[in-house]
Each structure stands twice: as C-alpha cells, then as structure tokens.
Amino acid sequence: MERPQHIVHEPPRENARFELAGIIGMNVETMRKELNMNEREIGDAAGVSRQVISAIVNRKANTTASNLEKIAHALGVEPWMLLYPDGVSAARDLKAKID
C-alpha cells in the first residue's frame, strides 16, 4: 500500500498580508488621480479620515470591508473593483463584457 504524500507548504512571505492591501491602495490612488481628488476629499465623501485614506494608499494599514465599501462609493465604483488586481479600468471593462 502506497503512503500518501505529505503536502509541503511554503512559509508565508513576510509581506503576504499586505499584497491585497497593496492592490486596494494602488486602485484607490489611481481613482483619486483620475477624479482629481485629494485624500481629504475622498475621506470626507466616504465618512473616514484623510489619515485612513493615506494609510490605505501607502499600504500602511489594512481596511475594513465597511470602509472599503464607503471608499468605493465615494470614488463612484463598486467595492469589488478596488480589489481587482489589474486595476479599476480593467474591472470596468470586465463588468461591461458581463452586462
């Protein structure tokens, strides 16, 4: 009888928990520039502080699902679009193909 192989897992990378945060930060920053808004304006529209927006954009902090939703609405996009690794424009293209 053959013994089952053991699965070897690589240890998590030191920055693995910030990879998704990096995608979100990049997409928020891209949208900020596209809309010609500053961090304070986004924060005011989303009901969060400028410091929260700055921390997200600079990959210094993770965000809550609630804040992600508020920020997405302030930027005029759907929350999932801020999670899309290829950027918000690509997410819009994908949505247009699906709709």
What are the main properties of this structure?
99 residues, mainly alpha, 434 Repressor (Amino-terminal Domain), 5 helices, 55% helix, 0% strand
Descriptive account of the structure:
The protein has 99 residues and is an all-alpha fold. It has a single domain (16-98), classed as lambda repressor-like DNA-binding domains (434 Repressor (Amino-terminal Domain)). 55% of the residues lie in helices and 0% in strands. The model is unreliable at 4-12 (pLDDT under 50).
Write the layout of secondary structure elements.
Elements lengths: L18 H16 L4 H8 L3 H8 L7 H11 L12 H11 L1
Helix pairs in contact: 1-3, 2-3, 2-4
Task: Summarize the model shown.
The protein is built from five helices and no strands.
